[in-house]
Amino acid sequence: MPIMTRRHFLTFSAIAGGATATGGLLLSPPSLAKTNPLLIPPLIDARQQIGPIELTAQAGETHFYPNTPSFTAGYNGHFLGPTIRVHKGDDVELSIKNTLNEATSIHWHGLLIPAELDGGPHQLIAPRETWQPVLPIRQKAASLWYHSHVHGRTAAQVYAGLAGMMIVTDEEEQALDLPSDYGVNDLPLILQDRHFINNEMQLSNNMMDIMHGRRGETFLVNGTLQPYAEIPRGWVRLRLLNGANARSFALSFSDKRSFYWIASEGGLLEQPVALTQLSLIPGERAEILVDFSDGALVSLVTQDDTSMPMMGMFNRAKNLVLSGSSLVTFQPTESSAPFKLPIKLTSLPTVMPDIAVRERSFHMNMGMNGFGINGQSFSMKRINEQVKLGSSEIWHLSGDMMGHPFHIHGVHFRVIARGGKKPLVRDQGLKDTVWVNEPVSVLVNFDFPAKQAPFMYHCHILEHEDNGMMGQFKVV
Ligand code: C2O
Ligand code: CU
Ligand code: CU
Fold it and tell me: H or E stretch including 23?
């Protein structure tokens, strides 16, 4: 069934025009008699593959709640897509077929490749067309993701389910012997929130939802509602991806146990960082190691989204999440092989702001004059910036009214200042998406070319991006 057939789902919401209709939801929260086993997206390992990796963007129906289908979309399935594992040094052939009745694109978020292969809004795949890129994998091990990126339609298509995880592996990471048994002690966790009415997923077009980005009162992990996962009684690696349109997660465990953060968006950190709490903004990934050897039942929980301090009050029903809401519950089963946490994971280049050849400023606008960056709303036809291939620059980022997750395609960057001071612990490592809830400065390396097609930079609140909070640059 084409995703456009349900008019109220993709184009017009039953609650358009007022937020009040959602008020009742909090009074009668959806409840399930028992929780659901966490779905693990199928793994496609590029090295086990004969011929190109085939992905089909398709419309479908998903029973998040039994007996009530929701109209959704996915790759090779009805919601989300397979996890694709690629290896550093390989050239990976893909074949992406669009069976939707609207154009789509598939962007490799975090992959460092030439812009023509990036899958952004300039690499549209028309209905019934197939795109066959060959992706040269030239970066270190990392947890990435892929998602639709059609200008003006990204939010609706990702919300419908057009997203999946991509894992880059390499020999350096394999030598560390981290938990790597996919679906067993190495779990992808795609964190999303959605709005449901009568157990059916809704795409709200209410003005406040567009303004702040769509949030929902219901959490999905890998498309599973109220999931639990059986895991070995031992160390487990969680690859956390914030795949929500707009919500930021403030993650911790229900028993406040500490865990080790080992990788940012660009790959391994130099050393494991012990934390009890970790925030994850839209588009961002973090890998953590958790010790479940005590055998206790424990949940990964989130606190309320604090990214919209004053504006939240206009739209409480869908933004308010009770502090400590469970995303996924872990049930340790049999014990696993002992694991020793490495002291050192990798080495990263020293951050040297002096190498920057130029500084630029980007201010994300919202308000009276609409959404934009530096006062301009996005246009496919305008190249906003041009940078020199192989150079480094300092980009100063800021934004209006609320926190914005700023993402740059085709690069890794390092945070060099936040709020005029030193970066936070969570700012370390190689990054492609950064929390701009105060002025932030990043040192960006432009090592991948954008000659014919540009790369994009934008707010990763997808409703902001779709409405113009995006720009594009060439690297020549
Ligand atoms: Cu995750 Cu331009 O995107
Ligand atoms: Cu991206
Ligand atoms: Cu924004």
Answer: helix 23-27
Helix (H) or strand (E) holding 85: strand 83-87
With residue 97 as reference, give the H or E element that holds it: strand 91-98
Compute, in angstroms, the gap from residue 91 CA to the centroid of ligand 2.
Answer: 19
Check residue 308 and give its pLDDT.
66
Task: Find out whether the beta carbon of 407 lies less than 6 Å from any atom of ligand 1.
Answer: yes
For residue 437, the enclosing domain spans 353-475
- CA-CA distance, 449 to 470, in Å (whole number)? 19
- Cα-Cα-Cα-Cα torsion 446, 147, 469, 219, nearest 10 degrees, comes to -130
| Residue 345 belongs to some domain of the structure | no
- Cα of 139 to ligand 2 centre, how many Å? 15
Ligand 1 pocket member 122 (CB < 6 A): no
CA-to-CA distance for 167 and 175, rounded, in angstroms? 16
The maximal CA–CA distance of the chain, rounded, in angstroms, is: 60
155-187: pLDDT as tens digits: 999 999 999 999 999 999 999 999 999 999 999
Give the global pTM. 0.92
Instruction: Specify the pLDDT at position 306.
Output: 73
Let me know whether 22 and 117 are in one domain: yes
What does the alpha-carbon distance between residue 303 and residue 242 come to, in Å, rounded to a whole number?
Answer: 14
